[in-house]
Amino acid sequence: MSSDQNILVKLNKAGFNLNNKWLVKGVSLQVEKGKIVTLIGPNGSGKSTTAKIALGIYKKIDGSVEKYTNKVGYVPQKISIDWTLPLRVNDFMVLTESLNKETIDEALSLTGVIHLKDKNLGDLSGGEFQRVLLARAISKKPELLVLDEPVQGVDFTGEIALYELIKKISDELNCGILLISHDLHTVMSATDHVVCLNGHVCCSGSPMEVAKNNEYKALFGEQASQILTRYEHRHDHIHTSEGEIKKN
Amino acid sequence: MLDDFFIRALIAGLGVAIVTGPLGCFVVWRRLSYFGDTLAHSALLGVTLAYSMEFNIAFSVFIISSLIALTLIQLQKRTNLPGDALLGLLAHSSLAVGLVVIGFLSFIRFDIMGLLFGDILAVTVDDLLIIWIGGALILLALKIIWKPLFASTVNYELAEAEGLNPDRAKAIFTILMAAIIAISIKMVGLLLITGMLIIPAAMARNISSSPQKMVMYSIIGGLLSVILGLFSSLEFNTASGPSIIAASLFLFILSLLNIKQSIKLKN
To answer: A4-71+143-149+175-247 has which fold?
Structure first.
C-alpha cells in the first residue's frame, strides 16, 4: 500500500445480498488510525450490515474488504446472549482475550460500571449492559473499534460522557473507530468523516460537506442539516478576549 | 489390581467422567443434547461395522458418528427442514439401519442390551487405554479451542468479528463429541451416553456462578455418579450403566435444593 500504513480497514464497492435482496451495495470507505468514521442513515439503510462487512462477519460479499488489523473491538447493535450460561461481567470481559485484573478494572471504571463486576450478566439493565459492552470492547486496547449504536439505552448524561470517552479513546490509543449512531448532535462533534447511507453511499465527506449535500437534506430534512452547520459554526472560529473573531 | 473387573470398571468410569464433565457443559450451553443423542444412536451402526469387519469398536464408532455429524451439517445447509426434524431423521434411521445390519450378521452373537445400556463390567485393559489416552487427547483439544468455542457460544458475531475463527472451533468440537461417544459407549451404552453428558452439567449449572465453576462441578458430579452408581450396582445387583445415570439424577435432585435456597435468599 502507498501512504497507507495508517489504513485499518478498507471497503471497495462492498455489498451484501441476502435472499436476493441487497442490504447494502457499492460501499467504499476506509478507517484510518486515530480517525473516527461515522455511518449515518435511516433505519434499514445498511449501517449495521456495512459494519459487519468491515468486520468480516459477512463473508460472501460483493466487492472486497481489506482488513489490516486483527486487534478489533466490537460493540454490536443487537446481541442475543443465552442467559442460561452462568456468566458474570468479569467472565464476559475476558471473552475474546485474556486480560489482567488492572486492565479489566480500568475499562469498567471508565464506563462507570466497576461496581457491577461480579454481577451476573443477565441481571444488568439495558444501559448497564451497554456500558459493559463498551468496556469490553475498549479493554483489549484494539486498533480498530466498531461501535454499532454504542450508547443505546444509556441515560442522557451517561450518553454524553460515553461519547466523550469514545473520542478520548480514539486519541489515546490512536485507534480507528467506525461508529454508527442516530444522534447527529453528539456524533458530529467528534467525527472526522461521515458516510451517509441509504442502501448505498448517498454522500460522504466531512460533517460540513455532508450537511450541505442535497441528498442528505432530502434524507434527513432541512433541520438535520442545520444541526451540522450550526455545530460547524460553533467551532470554525474563536472569540478572542478583545471581542474579535478569529478563524482557526 | 487391574485383574479385578470392578476396579477396571471404576477406572474406566472415572476416566469417562473427567471428559464428559466439560464437554457436557458445552452440550448444555449450546443446546446440543439432541445432537448428542443422534450421534449416540448412530453409534450402533458403527458397532455393527466393527463386528462385521473385525475392527476396533471405538474407532469405528468414531468414524460413523463423525460421518453422521458431517451429514447433518450438509443437510442443514441444503434443506429447509428444521434442525430437530433432521436430528430425529438421522438418529432413528441410523439406529434402524444398525439394527437391520445386525439381522444380517446372524453368525455373530450380539449383546443388544449391553450395546444399548452399557456393559462397564466387561471393560478390558485395552479399553482402559483407549478411554484414558483418548480422553486425554479430547481434553487437550478442548483446552486449545476453549476460547473461540466459549466466545462463540456466548455470541457468534463477537467471536467472528474479533478474529477467533468460531467455525473451526465448532467443527473440532463436533469431532470431539463423536470421540467421547466412541470411548464411552461401552460404559453406559448408546441410549444413556447423552445422560452422562447432560445430567452432571445440568446439576453443575444449578450450583455455579461462573463457567469455570460449572465445568469443575460437572466433573466432580460425574466422578461421584460413577463411584456411587458402581458401588450401588454391586450392592443391589443392578445394571451398572443405568445405576451410574440414576446416581447422577440423584445428585441433580440434590442440586435443586440449592436453587430453591438461593431463590429464597433473593426474595
So the answer is: Rossmann fold (3.40.50)
